[in-house]
Amino acid sequence: MDTVAPVRTQSPDVAVRRYVADAARAVRLPDDVAEILETSYREVSVQVPLRRDDGSLLVAHGYRVQHNGARGPYKGGLRYHPHADLDEVRALAALMTWKTALLDLPFGGAKGGIQIDPTTLSARELQSVTRTFALSLSHVLGAYRDIPAPDVNTNAQVMAWFMDAYSSRHGYTPAAVTGKPVELGGAPGREQATGRGLVYIVEAAARRWGWDLTGKRVVIEGFGNVGSWVARELDALGARVVAVSDVRGGVFNDNGLDVGGLVATVAAGGTVPDADVAHTPVTHDELLTLECDILVPAALGGSITADNADDITASLVAEGANHPVTPEADRILADRGVRVIPDILANGGGVTGSYFEWTQNIQQFQWKEERFNTELRERLEDAFHAVAEYAERDGCTYRLAAYAIALDRVARAARTRGYI
Known about the structure:
The protein is α/β, with parallel strands linked by helices. The protein contains 14 helices and twelve strands. The strands form two sheets. It has a seven-stranded mixed sheet.
């Protein structure tokens, strides 16, 4: 997702634990079992030294948290960001456990990060810090142990360096990392999978609720890989993307933005406010409360809080980022009748796409993109309808339904394996 600075009213780890606690009560999970499932199995902290181009030495702090592996090898992204502290990485690892369980993927949850600003590094420095990070973690990683993927400020090139460093110790192992370039075993369609998958879920929701997406007003916070693909896909479906933002600011046009122009500007190295498209500048705070039908927070966590939840005008919030809505804001939105499709469902296309890539690497057989997208749509739609049916049956929010389904699946796997 994109790098807008997070606003935290409480730590991400505490927020995720609150959602898990609510779900544990819903599925009547014993307190001792719930406590085990809330906490991480392993947390690794490493020094990542980097000799800068100017000769100076930078020592970054890196983390890998493996939350729960009852359902399979750990799976989760790597983010390079100054705010990627252990608390955040711990929360994101837990989210991956629940996300993979909800999507019925044979994975557990993990996450990793380095506290660096990659925009301040040269290409050589970025490659060096990536290789050092990979080697420092290689003893806890592997195709059947823990499979990293891209996240904030990491991409296919970073994953290629990471895989090459890992392979230097363990032999060529493309299945040890996902989100790679297609030339090195990446899957056609994986790059678009998170944003495209969110739109598949919005389409499924629209059909279930009797909505026509044509002309629906869409606001997107964040215009990196996720936000830009959401904008492209919804624009192609006839929705009206009226506002988007990135780390440098936001743009608004009530008649609909030129999405193609925005994409071209960002692809050329510019930012959203640089785009030569008809628009009015807006701040991050203004963007979230603009009049719209669908709001997609696709930046970092904590953007929708108790301070601005009452001002959200959207009928639907689809979480492209991880934990963008705080628990306090979530209750306010629920009380106001605003539907929220939670992150562990809405942005699940990325890890689902990674699963497809992983299986192709193991089989040494590459799918065509058409098959990839068909499988992606089917799996995400199945997960959405399972959550919707649970919520409608129990009269609860989609978030509680999603966590309840995921928690029950992890608990059953842990019991069956004899963990609890």
